[in-house]
Design brief:
Number of domains: 2
CATH class of the largest domain: Mainly Beta
Structural class: alpha+beta
GO molecular function: serine-type endopeptidase inhibitor activity
Largest sheet: 9 strands, mixed
Strand content: 25-35%
Distance between the termini: 42 Å
GO cellular component, one term: extracellular region
Radius of gyration: 25 Å
CATH topology of the largest domain: Immunoglobulin-like
Organism: Tricholaema leucomelas
Helix content: 10-25%
Keywords: Glycoprotein, Protease inhibitor, Secreted, Serine protease inhibitor, Signal
Protein name: ITIH5 inhibitor
CATH architecture of the largest domain: Sandwich
Mean pLDDT: 79
């Protein structure tokens, strides 16, 4: 009872908000609490936003809220969205929400007037059989699509005139610990200005919360989001409060603050990172209703020697920002290599070029310098021979392992980076997957990195998972270098 009372009432200390201009303060004070009439709010936002709202014909979103409770690194999230059709005829409303691909939807309801419609959660087997039967039929609503490591949940409905619709989406996920932190991310992309926009996250960790942080909004699709270089402060109107085992974070931007971030309503990802106390070397065991979970994260383990082959896409589609991102990402990864590591670089388009033929070189200042020079001089040209590049990389690494007396503790791996889909050589995904698995033969791991919107994320994900690796994806204008630090 005490826990839920705290979660409901909470307590908080301000994360700090910059002083706003006198006019902005006046506008915020005048904003209506219920945001009931869009025209009233439109007169109180910047002129550009007012123009966009005047052109808007879709139902307006009066409320968008996210409430999450994280208990022992397991998150329960509820998204509530209310849309109002103030027009004289029925209009289509679209509710769209990005959730992590590792999360699963536990419930969905949609209310229109006095009627409530309930979603049905089905198992994978039932869903697959239904999909086979519906191949030649019009896809139902709601729908979901997987892209770039996220599930896009989408539901559409026609709202009668002078009425409103309310959407409630519930999903759950187990948080993963990466680079020493647990990260919870919620997408805030209502695609329009919202009168009542609120995110509330409550965290309970019995072992104790340490290093709680809320970085700036991450928005790879929206440039010019007002974030200055090096800014690490929380988003505006963020409030953070916590004790030893409890934490509460809220994000409640006004309409004026939303327009300063993004006038199109695509604010970005609201991120919370934290870690838990690990005083016991044996880990943390928790028991509930006859089930138990054992969290074990050993510290101070010495890094293992690595044998790494970097396989880099230099095809014509990499021209511009994507090739620049690739180079910066590789410079970052090269800096993380240690003196006991060995590496080589393969660049590929329709042709495949190996930096150091038939060998891996040790990590020395001169070799790192020469590798950076080689990467810097790469230029985009030709098609994308993914299969040939991976076969070359696997053969190079297999030969090195077989012909050299490598450290028994060493770990061998390929890091593969591309922006697109196979266009040269073998282009069938199933054959590429089979060929790659046969070439690697469980002797080392494959890690894949995708850049941009055209990348075949499913192919990269399957290649990594089938070869004991992991995959990462970055948008074209995202700071891949900083996020690959320690990769």
């Amino acid at each position: 009872m005490i826990l839920w009372l705290w979660l409901c009432l909470g307590f908080s200390t301000s994360a700090g908000q910059p002083d706003s201009e006198l006019m902005a303060r006046y506008l915020e004070e005048k904003l209506l609490a219920d945001y009931s009439i869009m025209e009233q709010v439109a007169r109180r936002v910047p002129r550009q936003a007012k123009f966009l709202q005047r052109l808007e014909t879709r139902p307006r979103m009066s409320e968008f809220s996210v409430k999450s409770t994280i208990i022992s690194r397991y998150a329960f999230t509820t998204v509530s969205c209310t849309m109002v059709n103030s027009g004289s005829e029925a209009r289509e409303a679209v509710f769209e929400m990005q959730i992590p691909a590792a999360a699963f939807i536990s419930n969905f309801t949609m209310s229109i007037g006095n009627k409530t419609y309930y979603g049905e959660v089905t198992g994978k087997d039932k869903k697959n059989s239904s999909d086979e039967q519906a191949k030649h039929k019009k896809p139902p609503s709601p729908t979901d699509g997987r892209e770039n490591g996220y599930e896009t949940f989408k539901a559409s409905v026609f709202i009668p005139r002078k009425m409103q619709a309310k959407f409630l989406l519930h999903y759950e996920e187990l948080l993963q610990r990466r680079l020493g932190k647990y990260e919870y991310t919620v997408s805030i992309r209502p695609q329009q200005l919202v009168g009542r926009l609120r995110v509330e996250v409550n965290i309970l960790e019995n072992s104790g919360i340490v290093s709680l942080e809320v970085p700036p909004l991450r928005n790879s699709k929206q440039k010019g989001n007002g974030k200055v270089e090096g800014d690490v402060s929380p988003p505006p109107s963020t409030v953070i409060g916590h004790t030893k085992t409890l934490a509460k974070v809220t994000f409640n931007p006004s309409v004026v603050e939303q327009t300063r971030i993004a006038r199109n309503g695509i604010l970005g990802d609201f991120i919370i990172r934290y870690d838990v106390n690990r005083e016991l070397s044996i880990g943390d065991v928790q028991i509930l209703n006859g089930y138990f979970v054992h969290y074990f994260a050993p510290t101070d383990l010495p890094p293992l020697p690595k044998n790494v082959v970097f396989v880099l896409d230099s095809s014509a589609s990499m021209v511009g920002t994507k090739l620049k991102q690739t180079k910066e990402a590789l410079f970052t990864i090269l800096q993380d290599l240690r003196p006991e590591d060995h590496f080589n670089i393969i660049g590929f388009s329709n042709r495949i070029k190996v930096w150091q033929k038939d060998r891996l070189v040790p990590v020395t200042p001169n070799n790192i310098r020469d590798a950076k020079k080689y990467i810097h001089n790469m230029s985009p040209t030709g098609g994308t021979n993914i299969n040939g590049a991976l076969q070359t990389g696997a053969k190079l690494l297999n030969d090195y392992i077989a012909q050299n007396d490598i450290d028994a503790r060493s770990v061998s791996l390929i890091i593969f980076l591309t922006d697109g889909r196979p266009t040269v050589g073998e282009t069938q995904s199933s054959r590429i997957l089979s060929n790659t698995k046969d070439a690697i033969h469980d002797k080392f791991c494959l890690f894949t990195i995708g850049i941009g919107n055209d990348v075949d994320h499913k192919l990269l994900e399957r290649m990594a998972l089938e070869n004991c690796g992991m995959t990462r994806h970055f948008q074209e204008d995202e700071d891949a270098a900083s996020q690959l630090k320690g990769f």
